[in-house]
Amino acid sequence: MFALLFLLCRTAKEMFDRASYPMRYEEAVNRSCEAYGVPRSLVYAVIRTESRFDPEAVSNVGARGLMQIMEETFDWAKFRKKDDVTQYDQMFDAETNIDYGTYILSLLLGEFENDSTAIAAYHGGWGNVSKWLADPQYSDDGVHLKSIPINNTDWYVAKVERAQKRYQALYGIE
Description:
Shape: globular
Strand content: under 5%
Structural class: mainly alpha
Radius of gyration: 18 Å
Number of helices: 8
Mean pLDDT: 93
């Protein structure tokens, strides 16, 4: 009886966890992660943290879509992609938003030497993170941030990293 109860509780917890950490838009995420070399667990963690998988999400500062992309960031990525077609209004399209968000993550992962710093740049801005890395108050080695002066960016990095670990544990993905 105890074994059956244990099994039921364990199954219920796994179902709850999978509902809390869904893998929606799998085809678009897989395609973009493969194209840009970004871990799927990171993209899912960013989507969950940014929009809770709502493609129509708009932040209080105007970021749009699943991965909450700001217009200035979109313009920067569009220039880097040499994309003359896509418009910022398309950030509400799930596939387009995932493609751009994953591309942006790939650029940041390539620029910064560790995932935490790249995640901080995704939220707090490339320029801010570059300044923090150059400041001994925030970085001892110019690579890792020992502290982040913007509280919500510090909170964001921790939340994305926790979500990424849950995705890795639940689904066995990189």
